[in-house]
């Protein structure tokens, strides 16, 4: 009996930006789902308790809180841009190989730039 043929896998293919964006789109969707559940849990735990809110603000303003917020913000921006990219391609735009590569790089670079911009916005400043 002959062995069944083995389907090509990630080790066979040369990594391309389109592959990376596709994989990251799925991963960021999973991170956003977990993050949304975590945010909902925090909001339910607070329920108007000012002392708990102060503790949460302290955590969010710490270095690890800022790293978590930056990571979750990047996931949100990346997933949104990748979704827009897919919508445009589903509509028949940017469907050449060169356009696939260009929009993939635009998604990666744009998500990093927009995340940096969003993290620099002075959130929570009264009167600013």
Automatic annotation (TrEMBL):
Q: Which residues form a coiled coil?
A: none
Task: Report the transmembrane regions from the record.
Answer: 29-51, 63-82, 102-123
Q: Which CDD domains match?
A: SQR_TypeC_SdhC
Biological process terms from the Gene Ontology for this record are: tricarboxylic acid cycle
Bound cofactor: record note: The heme is bound between the two transmembrane subunits.
Task: Decide whether keyword Repressor is in the record.
Answer: no
Q: Where does heme bind?
A: 79
Cofactor(s), names only, from the UniProt record: heme
Report the Pfam families cross-referenced here: Sdh_cyt
User: Could you tell me which InterPro entries the record lists for this protein?
Assistant: SQR/QFR_C/D (IPR034804), Succ_DH_cytb556 (IPR014314), SuccDH_FuR_B_TM-su (IPR000701)
Q: Which GO terms describe its molecular function?
A: electron transfer activity; metal ion binding
Q: Where in the cell is it found?
A: Membrane
Q: Which domain of life is it from?
A: Bacteria
Query: What are the UniProt keywords, alphabetically?
Result: Heme, Iron, Membrane, Metal-binding, Transmembrane, Transmembrane helix
Q: Which GO terms describe its cellular component?
A: membrane
Role played: Membrane-anchoring subunit of succinate dehydrogenase (SDH).
Question: In which family does this protein belong, per the annotation?
Answer: Belongs to the cytochrome b560 family.
Its assembly, as annotated, is:
Part of an enzyme complex containing four subunits: a flavoprotein, an iron-sulfur protein, plus two membrane-anchoring proteins, SdhC and SdhD. The complex can form homotrimers.
Q: Which protein, by its recorded name, is this? A: Succinate dehydrogenase cytochrome b556 subunit
Q: Which gene encodes it?
A: sdhC
């Amino acid at each position: 009996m002959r062995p069944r043929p083995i389907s090509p896998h990630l080790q066979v293919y040369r990594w391309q930006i389109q592959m990376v964006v596709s994989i990251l789109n799925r991963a960021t969707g999973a991170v956003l789902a977990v993050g949304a559940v975590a945010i909902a849990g925090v909001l339910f735990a607070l329920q108007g308790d000012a002392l708990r809110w102060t503790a949460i603000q302290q955590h969010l303003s710490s270095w690890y809180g800022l790293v978590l917020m930056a990571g979750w913000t990047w996931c949100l921006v990346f997933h949104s841009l990748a979704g827009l990219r897919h919508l445009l391609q589903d509509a028949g735009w940017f469907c050449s190989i060169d356009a696939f590569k260009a929009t993939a790089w635009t998604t990666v670079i744009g998500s990093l730039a927009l995340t940096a911009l969003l993290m620099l916005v002075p959130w929570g400043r009264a009167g600013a």
